[in-house]
Amino acid sequence: MHAIKCHSLSKKYGRKRALDSITFSSSEPKIIGIIGRNGAGKSTLLQLIAGYIRPTSGEVTVFAQNPYNSLFVSANSMYASDEMRFSPKFTLQETLAKMAAFYANWQAERALKLMTYFQLEQESYYHHLSVGMKSIFRMIVVLCARCPLTILDEPTTGMDVAVRKDFYRLLLKEYIDDPRTILLSSHLLSEIEELVEDIVLIHEGKKVLHLPMEELREYAIGVSGPTAQIQSVVAEHDWLMKKEITPGVTYGVVKQSDISLEMFQAKGLVAEKVAVDDLCIYLTDGDRGGINRVFS
What we know:
- It is a single chain.
- The protein is an alpha/beta fold and 296 residues long.
- The chain has 2 domains: 213 residues, P-loop containing nucleotide triphosphate hydrolases (Rossmann fold, 3-Layer(aba) Sandwich); 79 residues, Alpha-Beta Plaits.
- The protein contains 11 helices and 13 strands.
- The strands form 3 sheets. It has a 6-stranded mixed β-sheet, sandwiched between helices.
- Strand 8 and strand 9 form a beta hairpin.
- Helix 4 runs antiparallel to helix 5 and helix 5 runs parallel beside helix 6.
- The longest helix has 17 residues.
- The chain is elongated.
- The model has no long low-confidence stretch (mean pLDDT 89).
């Protein structure tokens, strides 16, 4: 049974198409990165999977059920974003204590240990916390609930570097202890590339690709050399981008299919692997040409 299955999933707000015919699925426990620029449609996709909103067209199922207004899906999934709210009447300790009634796998002891580690006072109230501390508390709740489907929408908002590193270590340990399907959205792939097993790259509401992380690392090659020589091999390969970096010298990124670093190096060109963050930029930049076009 698929934990998640999306088929031609679309969502419109008025005339704005936030999501456009997204299709992907996942049947086994894994950590999946939902990657895209700001406004790409990541949050809309996650809200549809969580059952918070209805699609305009297409279909989404979670554990073979329509997630919208589904008590079964609600009991077996948790969606965390910066819009997550807790009752202002309850302290943090009281909020945690009430989670056991809703989530069968609730880890009460671990939740309290994490509260102590991250220096969250149990008698504090959620709405009194800083932005970073709110993010920490949300992550304690969502990870200690151990739902079969865990959805994390830009989870590190407001966290400093040290806390982000701790959070990612915690996420990995939780996944190892209790394998489940985890959707993790971010616009910084380099920050999560050691965690995720699959990547879904979204741009302007459309799926650009869905690949295992290992395949994405091998997806393209960066090549630099004399402009004339680069131009002579352009027609032979599927180029994602090319630009003149200095007079007479061009850098390009070519999709790796039946070619290798050694093939370009044999032609006297400098060839190297492309960082995954840079690759995602090239795959979604289209014809805009980067920020330099503003000054041309």
